[in-house]
Amino acid sequence: MTGRLSSVVSPKVGYWLLVALSAVPAVYLLFAVQYSAITVPFWDHTELIHWIADWREGNFHVSSLWAPHNHTRPLVYRLVMLMNAVATDWDVRSEYIYLYLSIYGTFACFVWLARRLIGEANAVFPVTLLSVSLILFSPVGHNNHWWSMMFQLDATNFFIALSFLLVFTRPEIWSCHVVAAVSCWLAAFTLTNGFFAFVAIIITFQLSATKFTRPDRFAVFWVINLLVASACYLPGMQMESSSTHPSALELLEFSLTYLGAPLGGLLWFPYRSMFQLPMSIAVNLICGSILLVTCAALSLDALPRLRKRHPAAMVLFGFAGFAMLSAVATGWARATFDEYGVANGNASRYTIFGSYLLLGQVYYVGAALVQGWWGEQAHSILARRVVFVLAGFFACAAFVSYGRAWRVYADAHEFNRSLAQTYVWGLDPVPEDRFIHPRPEAVAYLKRQLQLLELGPYGNRAYVKAQSPVGSFSKPVYLSAARTVRQRFVATDDGLKRLSLKFVTPNGKATTGVVRWQLSEVGSQEPLARGDVEAGGARDWATMTLRLPYVVASRGRTYELALSGTGEDSTALGLPLYEPVESSGQPVLLSDDGDAQHGRFVMELTTEYAK
């Protein structure tokens, strides 16, 4: 590639043109995600509402983040997503920040790896960088781009890449092994593939040991980490996903397809829409077979260097081992999972780990060309030209696939628009609910919690306010255990969603306890909503908003708000009462020690209606 460029431009200009070209896939990914991102809760990602609701209601337990899901314990994923949801009222758009950090962080690891193995002051570096960039940001893995839940895979990929970078480029430094082990633990408790990274590192270090039959000290360190992590991970885990497992032939076909998909998809992009799973495995199976053959040939060449723990050889063996373990383990669970069978190996999301087989060979070949490992100068020049021609063909085909892939991101963009429109106020089922989640009861729970807590697509919505008219301020009433304060009002519009009122603190810093509130429709036995207000956290004359479930047909209906407290009047929160004016509604009903009496005052109440 650089040979052809040098006939038109200088080698230095050609070098920097290739480096600049390496940034194109990264920019492409940025625009693709910004355009196609799903920005509302969708499918398995909706399960996060359970943790968010528990957090908001004060029922959250850290141990719940440990619960298994689909053969994994995604502790890191849940922790990051929950903290972000709490901070942003579950604005799904903000989750793509972490997806970007994971993907671009992985690219930074791979760039650093290229610098360590190949160096920068040569023509091979920009060719390697371009190849790595095309593979890492590949639209073949589009499923890991337009859905923020795939942060789980992208973060795992970053932790694994960091671990490999540290231990394979500095194999004799203990501090690197310790940091890499921490990174592998994080990967394992994000997705199960992190355990395959443990195994790949163990095998690579044992193969490179001075005496193969004697346990290597670094391999022992990683074995201990693997055993301890497994002891924490496996108890209580249900590993069976299918009543049947694949035959040896089916497992082989799936694994070869899985390993060949990153290359085959870039040579000719096979996806036509965001959810399409290509049924033909021929191209990817052939690519996977070729990659295994070339990997075997390169491994034979690298074996003497592996014994010396040369970083390029360790990368080749470690990357290939990880990819193969991922392929076989995934195939065991998914090759006969449904009617798609071994075609599941074409799934877009799997290419993120299958690509390590190709990446390991890219790095080793690059290092071999720079180090001149392949014979005399004439043979080395010939090898370099062959590699550059193949790299040029690969880059041209890949950029064509990048262009053809935009239709998938456009499809995701349209799907997101349709999906967002299903989040309308109210809990009545709509046909499009099936796009949110296949189980209607899960959709009903999700919408009920989102509307009640005003999260996600129901956050920052417009509200129409209606304030009850009041006269001059009269006095506060203490909300203690001694009394209950009730007031009835008539809703002026449909879509009742909030009530706002003010509290006062006549007891100052001595204010403690809890104020309990309940809203009911007059004539109904069941309350519409109830909740607590921490009296100690209230500020004098500050407005307090009570969030309600969305009430579709509230216009003209009469409701009653009841407020009660705990403790004595000397520590109670106060509720300001006002002189009534015409049309201000029914007076406050005070219940003192069980004796009900009508007062001649009203509370200042603002009703808000969602539109």
Structural class: alpha+beta
Q: What's the arrangement of strands in the largest beta sheet?
A: 6-5-8-3-10-11
> Which parts are unreliable, with pLDDT below 50 for 5 consecutive residues or more?
593-597
Number of helices: 19
Overall pLDDT metric: 91
Shape label: elongated
Largest sheet, if any?
6 strands, antiparallel
Query: Which range does the strand content fall in?
Result: 5-15%
* Helix content class: 40-55%
Straight-line distance between termini: 59 Å
**Total strands:** 13
Radius of gyration: 31 Å
Features:
single chain; alpha+beta; elongated
Describe this structure as you would to a colleague.
This protein is an alpha+beta fold and 611 residues long. The protein contains 19 helices and 13 strands. The protein is elongated and about 105 Å long. The two termini are 59 Å apart. The relative contact order is 0.10.
Topology:
Blueprint: H1 2-6, H2 11-36, H3 48-57, H4 75-88, H5 96-117, H6 124-136, H7 151-169, H8 174-188, H9 193-207, H10 217-233, H11 248-267, H12 282-307, H13 311-334, H14 351-354, H15 356-371, H16 377-404, H17 406-420, H18 433-436, H19 440-453, E1 463-467, E2 473-479, E3 483-490, E4 496-502, E5 514-521, E6 529-534, E7 543-551, E8 558-564, E9 573-578, E10 589-592, E11 595-598, E12 602-603, E13 606-610
Antiparallel strand pairs: 1-13, 2-9, 3-8, 3-10, 4-7, 4-13, 5-6, 5-8, 9-12, 10-11
Helix pairs in contact: 2-6, 2-17, 3-4, 5-6, 5-7, 6-15, 6-16, 7-8, 7-9, 7-13, 8-9, 8-10, 9-10, 9-13, 11-12, 11-13, 12-13, 12-15, 13-15
